[in-house]
């Protein structure tokens, strides 16, 4: 077994804790969209229109994320991973905390949703710069033959961040009635982000630069404009990397944001109960992550993604019978399956996307591919799902999952195996 120095564990922890905090920030907005954003910021419309408007504000951050990936990727590839990661966390945390202070429509009219969109854009910018750097920290420090395992640590951040987000809203659901939650209770998880960001910054500022980047820096291998180098010479891996990410996003946001909204409104499942169901389901995502990362190191990234993607394609056919049943057990089982498959497809990305690009554009390339996949797979997923339900029915939403999975499987088939590539 490879000996791993304590500094490697510190790097793994730093890559994990940062993504956990950033995804906590991101997910609390997704949960708020499903429960309260429509009535607070778009009150002068019927519930269906409120939901559609709220889902559109949800999608804004996904448009911002590739912008963040390009901006932070530029500095990450030019000056280093450490400083860039600290700044991205600060941008995300500030935007999230300010949402907690934002007055609703009744107090300041249309200024409220306009400012909400601006802060949501800020969340997207921050998260766009986060994941690529966190994945590079883990991958560029990883011992030989264990890059998939160490690339798993930033991938564990999302399920932990989601558990923190769901747990906070679940606790508020137990302590507050609906009127209190809508008036002020929903703001507490946003304000709590400030505390988490301070913790994350402390950890991030203790980091040292990765040896791969330090070596490139000594050799003066940086390019003046990484984005131009990326699009001129690495457009194919950028596109395929983005497409292979689509299934991860579609599985997650249909299973969480859409299903939470549908379950609590159309099916009438109490919000605390549905949040508890999601807490159970996300444990399966966390369990799948190390299993898939281990398999990626032993069998390759492509086989794992292709097998899990094919299973996800078939799982789309289960959405309608599961949700239409109204059964708590069947719905929880379906959510658990979807999030298990999300973890299985998501875990290899921590190694795969950095492996697609050379050091001089790796931060820009990995982050941009990851976040372009978000535009395709997640930005409008809850909105499109809502429209599909209104005009076609639940089976069409399941079809959305299947199509997203097919896109990622085809992209994985077009990629070459990256497991044995050197990062230097």
Secondary structure elements and pairings:
Elements lengths: L5 H36 L5 H32 L2 H21 L3 H4 L2 H31 L5 H4 L1 H24 L2 H6 L4 H18 L5 H8 L7 H8 L1 H31 L5 H29 L1 H15 L3 H7 L2 H19 L2 H7 L6 H18 L1 H11 L2 H21 L10
Helix pairs in contact: 1-2, 1-3, 1-5, 1-7, 1-9, 1-12, 2-3, 2-5, 2-18, 2-19, 3-5, 3-9, 5-7, 5-17, 5-18, 7-13, 12-13, 12-16, 12-18, 12-19, 12-20, 13-14, 13-16, 14-16, 14-20, 15-16, 15-20, 17-18, 19-20
Sketch the major β-sheet: none
CATH architectural grouping: Up-down Bundle
Class derived from helix and strand content:
mainly alpha
Percentage beta strand: under 5%
Helix content: over 70%
Q: What gap, in angstroms, lies between the N and C termini? A: 23 Å
User: Within the CATH hierarchy, at the fold level, what is the topology?
Assistant: Growth Hormone, Chain: A
- Oligomeric state, counting identical vs distinct chains: single chain
Total domains: 1
Task: Give the SSE string.
Answer: HHHHHHHHHHHHHHHHHHHH
Low-confidence stretches: 1-6
Describe the structure.
- By secondary structure, the protein is an all-alpha fold.
- It has a single domain (6-414), classed as Up-down Bundle (Growth Hormone, Chain: A).
- The protein is built from 20 helices and no strands.
- The protein has helices at residues 6-41, 47-78, 81-101, 105-108, 111-141, 147-150, 152-175, 178-183, 188-205, 211-218, 226-233, 235-265, 271-299, 301-315, 319-325, 328-346, 349-355, 362-379, 381-391, 394-414.
- Helix 12 packs antiparallel against helix 16, helix 12 (235-265) runs antiparallel to helix 20 and helix 15 (319-325) runs antiparallel to helix 20 (394-414).
- It is globular.
- The protein starts with 5 loop residues before the first helix and ends in a 10-residue tail after the last helix.
């Amino acid at each position: 077994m490879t000996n791993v120095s304590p500094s490697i564990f510190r790097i793994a922890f730093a890559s994990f804790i940062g993504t956990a905090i950033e995804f906590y920030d991101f997910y609390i907005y997704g949960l708020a969209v499903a429960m309260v954003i429509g009535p607070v910021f778009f009150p002068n419309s019927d519930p269906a229109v409120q939901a559609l408007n709220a889902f559109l504000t949800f999608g804004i951050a996904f448009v911002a994320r590739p912008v963040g990936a390009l901006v932070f990727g530029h500095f990450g590839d030019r000056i280093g991973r450490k400083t860039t990661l600290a700044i991205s966390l600060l941008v995300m945390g500030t935007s999230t905390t300010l949402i907690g202070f934002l007055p609703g429509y009744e107090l300041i009219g249309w200024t409220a949703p306009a400012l909400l969109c601006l802060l949501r854009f800020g969340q997207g910018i921050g998260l766009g710069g986060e994941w690529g750097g966190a994945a590079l920290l883990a991958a560029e420090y990883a011992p030989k033959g264990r890059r998939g395992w160490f690339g798993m640590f930033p991938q564990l951040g999302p399920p932990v961040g989601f558990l923190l987000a769901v747990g906070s809203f679940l606790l508020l659901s137990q302590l507050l009635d609906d009127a209190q939650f809508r008036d002020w209770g929903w703001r507490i998880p946003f304000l709590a982000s400030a505390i988490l960001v301070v913790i994350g910054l402390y950890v991030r500022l203790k980091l040292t630069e990765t040896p791969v980047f330090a070596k490139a820096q000594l050799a003066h291998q940086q390019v003046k404009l990484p984005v131009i180098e990326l699009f001129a010479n690495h457009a194919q891996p950028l596109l395929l990397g983005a497409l292979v990410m689509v299934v991860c996003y579609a599985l997650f946001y249909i299973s969480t944001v859409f299903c939470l909204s549908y379950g609590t409104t159309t099916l009438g499942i109490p919000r605390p109960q549905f949040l508890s169901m999601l807490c159970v389901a996300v444990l399966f995502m966390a369990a799948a992550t190390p299993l898939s990362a281990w398999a990626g190191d032993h069998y390759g990234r492509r086989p794992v993604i292709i097998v899990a993607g094919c299973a996800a394609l078939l799982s789309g056919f289960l959405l309608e019978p599961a949700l239409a049943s109204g059964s708590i057990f069947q719905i929880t089982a379906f959510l658990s399956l979807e999030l298990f498959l999300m973890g299985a497809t998501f875990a290899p990305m921590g190694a795969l996307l950095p492996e697609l690009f050379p050091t001089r554009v790796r931060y820009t390339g990995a982050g941009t591919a990851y976040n372009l996949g978000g535009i395709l797979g997640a930005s409008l997923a809850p909105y499109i799902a809502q429209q599909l339900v209104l005009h076609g029915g639940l089976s069409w939403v399941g079809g959305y999952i299947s199509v997203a999975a097919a896109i990622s499987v085809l992209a994985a088939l077009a990629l070459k195996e990256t497991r044995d590539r050197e990062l230097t």
